[in-house]
Amino acid sequence: MISAAPPFREDVLLARLTTIGTGGPARAYAEPATLAELERALVAARERGLAVATVGLGSNMLAADTGVERLLLRLNGELASARAERTLLVAGGGATNAVCLHRARDAGLGGFEFACAIPGTAGGGVWMNAGAYGSDWSAILVRALVATADGTGWLTASELGFSYRHSNLEHGHVVAAVEYQLVERDPQEIRAKVKSLVERRKATQPTTKRTFGSVFKNPEGELGAGRMLELCGLKGYRHGGALISPMHANFIENAGDATTADCLALMAEARRRAHLEYGVELEHEVVFLGDLTLPAT
Ligand SMILES: Cc1cc2nc3c(=O)[nH]c(=O)nc-3n(C[C@H](O)[C@H](O)[C@H](O)COP(=O)(O)OP(=O)(O)OC[C@H]3O[C@@H](n4cnc5c(N)ncnc54)[C@H](O)[C@@H]3O)c2cc1C
Q1: Closest Cα to atom 14, ligand 1: which residue?
Q2: Considering 179, 214, 271, 273, which one is annotated as catalytic?
Q3: CATH number of the structural domain spanning residue 153
Q4: What local confidence, expressed as pLDDT, does residue 2 receive?
Q5: Of 181, 203, 225, which residue constitutes the final position of a domain?
Q6: In the sheet where 238-239 sits, what is the strand order?
Q7: Axis-axis angle for helices 187-204, 97-106 (nearest 10)
Q8: In the chain, which end has fewer C-beta atoms inside a 10 angstrom radius, N or C?
Q9: Does 27 qualify as catalytic in the annotation?
Q10: 180: Cβ below 6 Å to ligand 1?
């Protein structure tokens, strides 16, 4: 049977798809649940002249208040599940890191604990080579199955061009599945490690607030972006409904009614101050969707 493209909806707000909770409507939205549905959706989008972007948990995404002129795909069903195969963890591109961590732990597989406090999906992790505590996607990823309107194929870690918080994926390249190489480890040891990493996080980052994770990449040199912005006196600095986190200056919190424009205004001010006081051009880590730009410093 030939699988149909999943229906395209036109009523979905990015504010509902992003952890910061801002952003206007997607031109179209669909949730493919199988690889065949995903491939059909990509072809159907091309036939309609629609550009595509994928959203995972939206935990590293800032979308324009005016909306996004793309088909937004959110992977579901078998594209969001995970299973262990000997020492490999095989996950759909939409599988959350929490699900992957559980499957790995239940199978006695370690090496994914570093991702316990990264609230994203396998595909989102590949896109930006997500990482924490000295490890990242490039350290465990064997290969990723990438679907485009032109076809689907496996790419190795070296073909994905990983560097610090970067891969060479582009919008319209959808990670449908990944294979992680893990190592045998006692589930109790995994549980204990995750507990201590999560406690460290809670002590240093605003984990209970609506944010999109780190705003800026760490610049070269000793001083991280968070500490630099803290020394610029920006903790608690507010614009409209958004504020620079009083807990960690490289996070922006939605205080209830933030817009993307509010977040951008804070980012522009943070860049201006970092440039003025440290001569540094901070580069944003968060992915922009839609018509968004920051003024030059
Ligand atoms: C509280 C908090 C803590 C965080 N801590 C960390 C941290 O320690 N380290 C870190 O690296 N990040 C961190 N982040 C940022 C974020 O969680 C990670 O970047 C995560 O990997 C994003 O995954 P996602 O699925 O939510 O991607 P999204 O935010 O939905 O998307 C991000 C990018 O990935 C693309 N993408 C998503 N899914 C796919 C797919 N299947 N195929 C192709 N492209 C795709 C999107 O198009 C977009 O360009 C944190 C965020 C929050 C809110």
Answers
A1: 213
A2: 214
A3: 3.30.465.10
A4: 54
A5: 203
A6: 238-239, 242-244, 252-254
A7: 150
A8: N
A9: no
A10: no
**Same domain for 101 and 188?**
yes
Range of the domain at 251: 207-289
CA distances from 224 to 169, 203, 215, 221, 231 (A): 26, 18, 12, 8, 11
The first and second tokens of residue 166, run together, are: 């970067």
The reply to whether 6 falls in a domain is no
Query: How many Cβ atoms sit within 10 Å of the Cβ of residue 204?
Result: 11
Residue 2 inside a domain? The answer is no
Active site residue 199: no
Phi, psi for residue 192 in degrees, rounded to 5: -65, -40
What tens-digit pLDDT sequence spans the chain (297 residues)? Answer: 456 788 899 989 999 999 999 999 999 999 999 999 999 999 999 999 999 999 999 999 999 999 999 999 999 999 999 999 999 999 999 999 999 999 999 999 999 999 999 999 999 999 999 999 999 999 999 999 999 999 999 999 999 999 999 999 999 999 999 999 999 999 999 999 999 999 999 999 999 999 999 999 999 999 999 999 999 999 999 999 999 999 999 999 999 999 999 999 999 999 999 999 999 999 999 999 999 999 887
Residue 97: CB within 6 Å of ligand 1?
A: no
169 touches ligand 1 (CB under 6 Å):
yes
**Angstrom distance (rounded) from CA 98 to CA 285:** 22
Ligand 1 atom nearest the C-alpha of 60 is 29
Instruction: Output the CA 54–ligand 1 centroid distance in Å.
Output: 11
Q: Is residue 238 annotated as part of the catalytic site, yes or no? A: no
